Amino acid sequence: MNKLFIEIGFENLPIKSNDIIPNNLLKILTQNFRTYSNKNKNKNNKENFYLKKINIKIFTTARRIAIQIKNIKNIENNIKNILQFAIKIFLTKISGLKQMRWGKNPYKFIRPINWFIVLFNNKIIKIKLFNVFSNRKSYGHIIHCKTYIKLNKSNEYLFKLKYPGYVIVNFNYRLELIRHMILYLSNQHKFLVNIDENLLINITHLVEWPVAIVIKFNKIFKKLPKELIIFLIKFKQKSFHSVNQEKFLINKYIVIVNLNSLNKQKLIFLNEMNINIFFNDILLLVLYDLKRKLFERFKDLERVIFQYNLGTLADKTRRIINIIKKYIVYIGGNINIAIRAGYLSKCDFITYFVKEFNLFKGFIGSYYSFINKEKKEIYKTIYQQYLPNHYIKSLPFTKEGISLSLSNKIDDLIGFFYLGIKLNNSNDLLFTRRLAYIIIKIIIFNEKNLDLKKLIKYSIDLYKKILKKTKFITDIFLFILDKILNLTSKYQINKTIYCALKHTSFCPYDLFRRSYIMNYLFNKKNIILSIIEINKRIINFLKKYKKIYNHNLFMNYTVNVRYFKTNAEYNFFNSIFFFIQTYNKLIEKGNCNYKDILYLFSTLNNKINRYIKLIQIFQTNIKVTKNNILIFLLLRNIFIKVADFIGLVGIEPTTQGL
Questions:
Q1: Contact at 8 Å (CB) between 210 and 256?
Q2: Backbone phi, then psi, for 312, in 5-degree steps?
Q3: Is the previous residue joined to 164 through a cis bond, with omega within 30 degrees of 0?
Q4: 237-266 as b/e, with b when 16 or more CB fall inside 10 Å?
Q5: What number of other Cβ atoms are within 10 A of residue 393's Cβ?
Q6: DSSP state of 305
Q7: SS3 136
């Protein structure tokens, strides 16, 4: 049974590399092993190389990545050449990570390599990697293990790295160990901890020998906003905050350290001293800012440039207020609350707190508004203007908050278009694509049937120079609307379905809801296919009419019942008239149920088939023919308002000019 063991030791790796590097290396090794095995396959040995997941083990920490593979077949004779070639490809073609040049060396890699081990059946395979030759020497914890650890066999790796190396290399074991430490300390100190899984994974990547300790901070700092304390503990200290049995925040949190200290009290004392100094600085910033009320800072916004050629932050605030006046009428809500919130929305930019912690803009403005005794609705609206962000995933939820958030984000996009910034390149430094995606999410998930083109026009009217260039409205509208595709892929909606109806409405919520329902009904092929069949027949009749008479037919004429000669024609026309009335009633409901509309469409299939069998559509009298075709054109115009059903089967729409 052949065994291969590879370990590469680095400087501290970025967190995401712990998944990317092993997967890249395994993929390249597998490809090279399989290629060599296929080339050397002979009549006596017809068995190909294969790897099973159960035969592969991956060990990762911040300073090392190790791979152990068992049951390798058909590559024993040329293992050294295969590994050299595979590692060379791995180093030059690794994807997903930025590579850099280290020191005076000509090569590039994500981090400097400190040691390198390659063992095949416990024998060293001599390979050179970035001026480092493979050997049996591994290294343990950076503090607790100063000397190298010699590996005679690959099976010794886990045990020797643990003692005397003080390194737990198994990632899943390390993660569960940290989880149990947190739960044990929370039970011991009688408080509750909500373990954030993403934070737990990040900490597990960072530490090699985890030790959990409880840190206390001064109770006076509990007067700071709860969200602020949680953010600083969670994202700045990389720790777990705690609450009491009543779910109130307490002045304790759990830290995971990468150190096995005999003097834990000293370690706790140093951490407590650091956090108290940190919170003390924050409290001083807040107290210094509160010497002036928030609305008094508006004059200072005149001295802060928003963007070149777009004026100051005060100019942007005035634009937002004017936009909100139109948005609030369209969306709904209290106009006085929205205007006041818009006036105060940018005043926190020049506070000392936001200068130090830029991520808290919006939140700190909301907190200072609360301290200044503004109305509850006002500081809630200010808080929502930058949602969602990197740390808070919730969307604006009040009508005033939605108006302020949309007016701010759409104004930003218009400004970037006005400046001529290219928004589709890979280096999107202004996060314009993310901004457009957030606009779409706010409209869709708040279930607001808003006309996006109308919102853009309201905002663009404030830019007098752009007002003449109407193409800006269409460009911005299409740029934002394209981000619905991100949502459709997330919810596993067929892209073809969305493309078939994206030109039928300017309302993102209506488009998304319609595509979601059609995707659901697409599995029930009898419904969708019957509608597609109707559209095919109608299109064929319209094309035949154009071919015979060399012109298109438009709805300038009305259907004339005088040309009907049989009861079948009268009955069909009455059923179409009833169908149109039912359709109009369903559409008038606003957020209509498209499932009912599509079911209504599918009922026409049998009626149209019966009508075509009984009646000759094309007759010698051109007026009778035109009258018959007008009925089909009337139906086609209704279908095209919902979706281009011809496009659903991969056929290009043939509706232009009809």
A1: yes
A2: -95, 175
A3: yes
A4: bebbbbbeeeeebbbbbbbbbbbeeeeeee
A5: 8
A6: B
A7: coil
CB atoms closer than 10 angstroms to residue 132: 15
Range 294-507 classified under CATH 1.10.3210: yes
Inter-residue contact 364 to 339 (CB < 8 Å): no
**Can you read off the two tokens belonging to residue 306?**
């928003």
CA-wise closest residue to 410 among 290, 323, 340, 505: 323
Element (H, E) at 124: strand 123-124
E strand or H helix that includes residue 362:
none
Closest by Cα among 357, 365, 371, 362 to 223 = 371
* Helical residues (DSSP H) of 259-396, grouped into ranges: 264-289, 313-331, 335-344, 352-356, 363-371, 376-384
Q: Is 447 exposed, middle or buried (0-12, 13-18, 19+ CB in 10 A)?
A: exposed
d(CA 364, CA 347): 10
Which one, of 640, 404, 399, lies nearest residue 534 by Cα? 640
- The Cα–Cα gap between 106 and 565 comes to 89
Name the amino acid, one letter, at 550.
N
Q: Domain residues of the chain, as ranges? A: 3-162, 171-289, 294-507, 524-649
- Divide the 658 residues of the chain into consecutive groups of 10 and give the mean pLDDT of each group: 85 80 77 68 48 72 88 68 74 68 74 87 83 88 90 90 92 95 95 93 93 94 90 91 93 93 88 93 93 93 87 92 91 93 94 90 93 94 89 89 94 83 61 89 91 89 62 86 90 88 89 89 76 87 85 71 87 89 78 81 88 86 87 88 79 38
- Partners of 120 in the β-ladder: 4, 123
Contact 67, 118 (CB under 8 A): no
Q: Using only C-alpha atoms, what is the Rg of the chain? A: 34
Residue 579 identity: F
Question: 């739960």: which residue's tokens?
Answer: 183
| DSSP SS3 for 6 | strand
Q: Are 167 and 7 in contact (CB under 8 A)?
A: no
* Residue pair 289/352 in contact by the 8 Å Cβ criterion: yes
Q: Can you tell me the distance from the alpha carbon of 359 to that of 259, in angstroms, rounded to the nearest whole number?
A: 31
d(CA 266, CA 268): 5
How many Cα atoms sit within 13 Å of 101 on the Cβ side? Answer: 5
Entry pTM: 0.81
CA distance 510 to 513: 5
DSSP string of 535-596, one letter each residue: HHHHHHHHHHHHHHHSS---TTS---GGG--SHHHHHHHHHHHHHHHHHHHHHTTSS--HHH
